[in-house]
Amino acid sequence: MTIVRAARQLESAAPLLSVDRLTAPDAYWYAAGMLPRLPVLQLRFADPAQTWFYIDPATGEVLRTVDERQRAYRWVFDLLHKWDLNTLTLHRPAWDGLIWLFSIAGVVTSISGIWIGWKRLAR
Q1: Which residue has the higher pLDDT, 120 or 84?
Q2: What are phi and psi of 43, to 5 degrees?
Q3: HEC states along the chain?
Q4: Which of 37, 59, 85, 117 is buried most deeply by CB count within 10 Å?
C-alpha cells in the first residue's frame, strides 16, 4: 500500500506495529457530538513515544498524530473535564443529563462549602 510506505518515512527508524482501517470512532479519533471523518488509517509505530498516525486513505493526508503523552492527557484531562466518551457524545440526551447532574452537584457542593465556611468563621 502506497500510503503505508509513505507513512514509514514519517517514523523511518521505528518499526510499524500495526495498520488498522477505522470505520468507527475510537477513544483518540473522535469529534464531540458528531462522527469524525471516516474511514481513516491508524498506523502505530514502536518508537519511544509510541506514535500513532491517523491518515485519510483517500488523500494520504496525516489528519492527526498522537503519542503516548497525548493519549495519557486525553484520559487525565479531556475525559475528566469534557466527559467526551464516544458513547456519551453520540447519544446527546445521556451526555446532557450527565453534564447537568455533575454541574448541579458542583453548585450544591460549592454553596454548601461556602455556607459551612461562613458559619465556622462567624464563630
Answers
A1: 120
A2: -110, 125
A3: CHHHHHHHCCCCCCCEEEEEEECCCCCCCCECCECCCCCEEEEEECCCCCCEEEECCCCCCEEEEECHHHHHHHHHHHHHHHCCCHHHHCCHHHHHHHHHHHHHHHHHHHHHHHHHHHHHHHC
A4: 85
